[in-house]
Structure formats: structure tokens, C-alpha cells
Amino acid sequence: MKRVYAKEEVCIGCRLCEVYCRTEHSKSKNIIKAHKKEFPRPMARVLVEELRPVSFALQCRHCDEPACVEACITGALTKDESGRVVHDEAKCVGCWTCVLVCPHGAPQRDLERRKIAKCDLCPDRETPACVEMCPNEALVYEER
Amino acid sequence: MEGRKYRGNYRRNISGCGLAGMMSEDGRLMSGEPIIRAMEVLHDRANGLGGGFAAYGIYPHKKEFYALHIMYDDIRAKEATDVLLDERFEIDSEETIPTRKTPGIGKSPLLWRYFVTPKADRCTTDTCEEDFVIDAVMHINEKVEGAFIFSSGKNMGAFKAVGFPEDVGRFYRLDEYEAYTWIGHGRFPTNTPGWWGGAHPFTILDWALVHNGEISSYGINKRYLEMFGYKCTMLTDTEVGAYAFDLLLRKHKLPVEIACKVLSAPFWDEIDRMKEKGDPMADVYEKLRMVYGSILLNGPFAFIVGHTNGMIGLADRVKLRPMIAARKDDMLYIASEEAAIREISPELDRVWNPKAGEPVIGRLKNPVNNNSKAKVKAKAKVKETVA
Amino acid sequence: MKTYQLPEVIIERDKDKCINCGVCVRQCAFEAHKFDEEGEVYSEDEKCVACQRCVSLCPTNALYIRDNKPFVKDNANWTAETQKYIWKQAETGGVLLTGMGNPKPYPIYWDHILLNASQVTNPSIDPLREPMELRTYLGSKPDNVQIKMVNGEPVIETKIAPNLVMKTPILFSAMSFGAISHNATVALAMASKELGTYWNTGEGGLSKSLYQYGPNTIVQVASGRFGVHSEYLDAAAAIEIKIGQGAKPGIGGHLPGEKVGRRVSETRMIPVGSDALSPAPHHDIYSIEDLSQLIYSLKEATEYTKPISVKISAVHNVAAIASGIARAGADIIAIDGFRGGTGAAPTMIRDNVGIPIELAIAAVDTRLREEGIRNKASVIAAGGFRNSADVIKAIALGADAVYIGTAALVAMGCHVCQKCYTGKCNWGIATQDPHLEKRLNPEIAAQRLYNLVRGWSHEVSEMLGGMGINAIESLRGNRLHLRGIALSKEEMDVLGIQVAGSPMA
Question: Which InterPro entries does the UniProt entry name for this protein (chain A) (predicted)?
């Protein structure tokens, strides 16, 4: 299954991946409205970790044996047939257990909605938004 | 001379013309009548603004002398030229070139021929003699207003004028000459009215070249040849062809086939393919192109080149102008159209259309050595005959 | 002391569009954008160098950099720029420093030269259907060859000196590692290999990781001899002795200490943080025979297997100098015109010293032919080539090939802000800061360089075909295919061309 992988040697730490992830997961899908007009503000599911000069974008690894799926108390996190770890917002109660157990720190706490936000590999797109919009081709979407 | 106002500056005269050449490899002498008829067949390729011929073997009794064919605007030009010739040459004899009044040929310049040899103290070696003659010819052509030497080989001559080639041939009475190689040309210049000297063939020593085409690499070919001392004084791009043959064959002593491959070089694609196959010629062609890139002739052309010991037909590397070749017995024919060849010889052993860059080469079975020094008979000058 | 210099530009931010994402804050090494306490972005105009990095990356196109030419009373002599330079020197007492090539409005002769096309009497050639040959050999060539017949087959006896062979007459000019980043050199090397041409290391030496690109690399031996050792020479395809460069004729290279990090220090063989100043002359070349000695030393060191090039700036007697260099044994002469770029040069020298490459090439080609030595060395033209038309005109004037420097940098993302000497290039090109260098992804940059040269090469093929020529050696030095327009007679005489419309070919 294809995953998003970061090429840290060419990540420039601009965080445009975060901007476009946020836009893709907004109601309007319009970059200005998403950032200025929507409340609660949509959340980016990818986070750029940085210790200059090293930086790279980190998101859910869609693990083969996801700890979060095991830990989820409501069954909101499941692994589907394609291999993606899917988050059902309706079932999520914001207990943050997945946040505790994820070894990568991938689920983000959405304090306003009291749920988590996690990379879903952009099911509505052919290529995830972060990969497509990275200005330096620091993210790739491939099978390894 | 009409049209020759811009001395020293090239004024492009485009050639879209007709060519024919015939050679007896046995060295049999033939009259000029067949070649004139061949050129008549090619009449529509010319527009009457230039025609000419070259013939080899026509002066057997004077074969050790350089036969200079000179056209003069007026007698003053002749006098100025005579002075320069006297300085450099022993003149065996001189006379007007016989002509007959022919409709279609207008007012002609004065036409003279001289049989000369370089003065003894001026030259010791053979190649020195040849360079000396070239130098003298170029000097006179450049410096003397109204004089133009249009032929300067041994036992050969060029004959050219403004007019259709068949008329030019009859004007010069070529039916009365006997030669083993004849070359003819009819011109279709698109610029100004031609001048007599601008017709083909172009000659240097015993090289005579007729050309159909336009050499788009002229600008660099000219500068390359100038580096070796050639002066491009004529007003058309064809002369680089003649000088190129002289440089490659006489001075650099390249074999004929190699020289043709320099001028009409194979493409890099082809050379790379030969390299892959391990063909040793690939290395030869690569080196030739590296060294002789500036004399590669680009642009459409078909040449027929005559020289003492043979005749060469060569077309450009993408065959943008027609050239047909044929053989019958000891005869080699080259022409722009098969019809011209059939006019001379209705029966042919073999007719073929040479491929792009593939030369047609005719050779005398018994090559002539042109290096015998001439001895000038004392007091044989026509001028000095006093009644 | 208080500065009188005003900001050169004003940063305009459309507040309706700005989403405060902070990309501009993170991307500007000059710190022209900052977050305030409320998390909104504001800008400081005086820090902006107009490199357009923030404008390019802003996801909502909220930024615009506007020229802020200060109003000084109309004065053709004392322009705003002239006054600014004086204030700068009054405030620092130093030499005015700048980057890139001469921006002054001297005439661009390329824009006064027109090309020919064939019609009717001579068919033009379509490069998509017929072979169009751009292959170029650079090096010394003999005047003729001796051929011997061996078993009926011709064999060339003459030995020909080593030549570089390239698929297109365009190469990448010398840009030193130190002036540009390591990623930039990797991109140049990769693109050269793909294109079948060469790049030049400049005086920065050659990183070991790039030895694999050796067959496409020309290494430089400059006056500072940075990075010159036997493996360096062995790795290369050719060696270039840098006598001068077009941007700063008469003075040597200058790499400010800020740009000498660990890697540069290793490759150049100098201490970290020290200014790398190449002396003006090579201190072992004080005359032409000294140059000849160095040329032959390098030939001996490489066992006569590689061509040796000599690079000079175009100055007033460039023709005579080139003639001397050809006779001194060089296989290639590279001439850099006054528009050549640089990482750092004194402004006054960059803007006032040297002559245009158009005139220089014409003069050199004419002189070498007059002396009958044009075949001894190939000539490469450099200095401000902007497009394929400039390239083909240079070849028609007499150059064998063309070096491109600035054009290659622009292809990689440079916006010619002329601040290379600060080492803060936001595009990752003219910097040694590893954080900034990451911005130049070598694979993307190599692809862009490849695309550029490939596009230009195809355009050259189209123009050649239009002239009825199918091999570039038939255009080289063929000035009859050029015409001048709005040039004086003397200029056309130097160029060796006629005026457009002239009946004389």
C-alpha cells in the first residue's frame, strides 16, 4: 500500500504541507476561507518537526499493526481493507488514548472539537495534498 | 564588364542550373558538338544569363604551357595585364580566342589566350610553380581593373559567356576542338544580369567546376580558404568549391574519395552506427569532420569537377539537387538529367542516381603527368610579328 | 551612524489574502518578515533584497515587492543610485560589493544582430524530419591530415590532440563551490551528464562525491590554486587555467569568510571562516611564456590526455592576447565578456571594466584567422547569454561553443537580486548555510537545467534549418548569415557584418 514518505534532505521547513492539509480538510476547500473564515479552524494532520537544519513532515504511518487501533476505546480507529488506518469522527470521544500510545505522535488533539485529527491519505484525491503541493518535492507517495 | 561593380565584395548569385559532363577514360578525343547538344536539352534550366564549358586535351601541341584564357573590358586592361604577365612569365605565344558571331551572344569583351610558363628564376619545384601560377592569376584578377583570367591550366581551357550554353558553345566554335573530357553548364542567376566572368565553370589551375545550387556555408568556407592564401575574387559562392578541391587534392594530397567525404560529409548518426559495428572508417570520418569542419559544404549543390586526369561528380549530403550518372564502354557521363545524357548516347551500359554524398569518379586509364617543364621558343610572340 | 539609505523596495501585503501561515517568515533569510505577538505577520522593508522567494512561495499570492525608487529631483547625473552608493561608502568606508553581472544599460549587440533564413533558391531544412547536427568538438586541430593506404583502406596517420566532444554547443560556465552551494554543483554535474555536455567547477575545487561526473567536468586552476591536487586533475575531462573573468577583469576571485564552512574549507584546502582571496595575477604567470610553462606542466601532469583551456576576460587587446594564448599551447580559449556574472565583485569594477563579448569574439576570430592559427584552439564565448538566439549569433560570429552561467542560475531559481556575497541566498544557490541549501533540490534543479539547454538546443536547430544548414560547423564563423541593425560602421566592421538590407552578401 502506498504511504507518504518524507525526504528530509530536501525539506525546507516551509510548512506549506500543513497549510494545504488544513485546506483539504476544511469545509470550503478554499485556502483563504479555510484559514480565516471557518470556525472551528480546520486542523492539519501533518506536522513539520524541525531542529535546524534538519526538518521533515510527519504524519500517520498507517502502521501494519497500529497501536492506536488496539487502544481505541470506541472503535473509532480501524484498519480498512486497503491498509489505511481510518478515523471515524462520529465515534471519537476525545479520550486521547491513541495520542498516548502512538509511537510517532501522529494523532493531533483537536481541542475545539474535542476529537483527534489524523492523516487519512486524502481519500478524495489521487495524490495526497501535502505530496502534491510540496514546493521542493520533499514528500513522496509510494509503495515500499 | 556589366554587373561587376563591387570588386572584392561577394555579391551572391544563386545558381539554379543545368550541368553536363562527359569523359573518355581511354583518353579518346571528341569534338564539342555532343556536349553542346546535351546542354541544349537542358535549355530550360538556364535563363540565358550565363553558360560555359571546360575542355581537356585541347592544346596537345602546347601541353607543357599554362593556357591562360583572359577577358578584357578594353585594350587598356590588356596592356596593364601584359605588363604583369611579362614580369612573371615567359610568354610562348598569344592570340585572340577564335569566335563566330552567334545570335544570342551580345557584345563580348576582348578574349585572348596566352601560352606561358613561369620565368625560370622564379620557381624551382613543381608545387612552387603551381602556387606561383595561382598567385599570379589571383593577383591579376584582384588588382587589374577590367581584366579577368578565367582559365589557367595546362592543355585545357574554360570557355564562358553571357547567353544560353548552346549559343556560348557555338560562339566559341567548340565543335572545332577535340577533348577527352567536356563539361558544360547553363546558369539561372536570380540577382543581377550576369557578367561574362560570373558564368561557370570556375577554374583554378586545371580544376574546372560547374555547380548547381547555393552554398549556405559559403561565409565560413571563404574565410577558411583565405587562411590558406586563396582569394575569393569572383562574385559567386561556387568558387569555394573549386578552391576546396585544389586545397584538399593538390595541397593536402587527400585521396579523391576522402576529399569528397570531407566536402559532403556523412552524418554523425551514420558514423556512430559504423563505430558500433567496429568499422575502422568511423574513426577516419570522425577525424576528418573534426579537422575539416569549416570546409564542409552545406546547402544544396551538385558539382561536376574536371581535372587533367579525370572527372568527379558530387552532390550534397542530403541530395537536394539532381545528378544522374551513366557509363557506356569507356565513357562516363554525369548530368542534371538523363535526357541530356541520352542525347549524346542513346545506348548506355549503366545508368544510376548517386546517393547523397556518394561521389562519381572518372579516371584516365593512362594518367598524364603535367609536370614537364615547358621550353619557350624564342620570338614566337604573335604581337611581335611585323609585316 | 544613522543611515541615509532608504529601503530599495516596499513589501506590499494584501491583508485580505494573507492567512498568516508564516511561510514568508520562515523562508526569508534576511528576516524581512516576522510574527507579531498576536500571531500576525508584518514586514520590514529595509531588509528586503527583492529576491522574490516569499512572493513565489506565498500560497495565496498575498505579497508584492514594489520598487521604491526614492524621489530625488530629476538629475541625469546624480541619480538616486549614485547618491546611495556615496552614502554607503560614507557610512562604511569600504569597497562597494555586489554580485551577478553588469546591469548597466550598455548596448547589447545581440539585439542589433539579425539572422538569415533561406527561401526559394535554397530550401530551409526541417529539424523534425532531417538530421540537424549540433555535435561540437573542442580542442586543438591540425590544419590537415596525412592519410596512408593500408591494405586498400585509408588510415589517418596524423595524431590529433585530445578534444572534448559535446552533443550541443552549450556548456555550463565556471561557478565555484563556495560561491554556489554543493547542491547547485550536483545539479550542474547531473544535468551535464544527461545533456552530453560539460560543467566547470570554477576555482572552488571538486567535491569527492562528484568525481563520478568527472567525464563531464572541466576543472579550474585559478590563481589561488584552491583544491588543485593530482586526483582533481585526473578526475576531470579538461583543465582550465583561469586568468580572468568577465565580471572583474584584472582582479582575482573573492569568497567572503561567511561562505567558507567545513565543506568549502575541505574542498578548497583553506581554513574555515577565512576569506578566500585569489590573487590578481597567478603569481607564477607574469608573461606569456610563463603561461606556456603552466600549460605544458598541466599537460605533462595529465600525460597529454586532456585538453587545456585558458579563460580570459574580454579586454581591449583581447585579440592579441588570444593569439598569444593559442601559440602558447592552449587547446581551448574561453573568453568572458563584461556581462559575465560573479558571486562577489567590487561594484565599480563590475560595471566599468571589460568589453562586450560580441565584439571580443568577432575580433578574436578575425585575428586568429588572419594569422592562420584559428585551428590551433577552439574558442568558447561567455558573458551574459540570455537565450538561444544569442548562442547562435555567437557561433555565427566565430565561437565554437558558449558557456552559460547566469542563465543556468536563473533556470535553477535565481532572481538576480545581486546579494550573493551575503551568503543568504533564499533560493539555496549562492549560500553555504545548510538550512538554506536544502531549498535547492538537486534533482529538480538538474531537471530544470536539462530542460533549459534542451529547449535552447532545439531552437538552435530550428534556426539552423531555417538558414538551410544542417551541421553547426557550417555556421561557425559564417558571418554572411548575420546582418546589423542600428549600428555604426565601425561597430559593424569589428563584428565583420553588413547592415541589414545591404545587397552585398
Answer: 4Fe4S_Fe-S-bd, 4Fe4S_Fe_S_CS, ET_IronSulfur_Cluster-Binding
